[in-house]
Amino acid sequence: MHNNKITKALFLGASLLAATTSFSTLAATVPAGTKLAKVQELVKGNGTEVASIDLKKQRACQNQTLLEIFSKA
C-alpha cells in the first residue's frame, strides 16, 4: 500500500513536469524587430469541403480546386 502511494506521487509529478515543459513548444520564434499584426488569424480551407478526394468522383464546382491542383494539364 505504501508503494502504491509513492508510485502515484511519482506519476503525478512526472505528468505535471511533462505538461509544463511542453507549453514552451507552442510558441513561435520571432526575430527581433519583426512587426506582427494586432490580430493573428488563420484562415483554413477555401470554402466548402469537397465531397470526395477521388478525382474520378469530382462533379461539383467546389471540387474544381482539387482538380486543378492534382490533375495533369
In short:
Helices cover 38% and strands 0% of the residues. It is mainly α. It is elongated and about 65 Å long.
Task: Tell me about this structure.
This is Oligopeptide ABC transporter. It comes from Vibrio ishigakensis. Keywords: Signal. By secondary structure, this protein is mainly α. It contains two helices and no strands. The protein is elongated and about 65 Å long. The mean pLDDT is 73.
Q: Given the C-alpha coordinates, what overall shape results?
A: elongated
> What fraction of the residues are assigned to beta strands by DSSP?
under 5%
Radius of gyration: 24 Å
Instruction: Compute the separation of the termini in Å.
Output: 70 Å
pLDDT averaged over residues: 73
Helical residues, percent: 25-40%
Number of strands: 0
Treating each run of at least 4 consecutive H or I residues as one helix, how many helices?
2
SSE order: HH
What structural category characterises the helix and strand content?
mainly alpha
Q: Biggest sheet, open or closed, and with what strands and sense?
A: none
Which stretches are poorly predicted, pLDDT < 50 over at least 5 residues? none
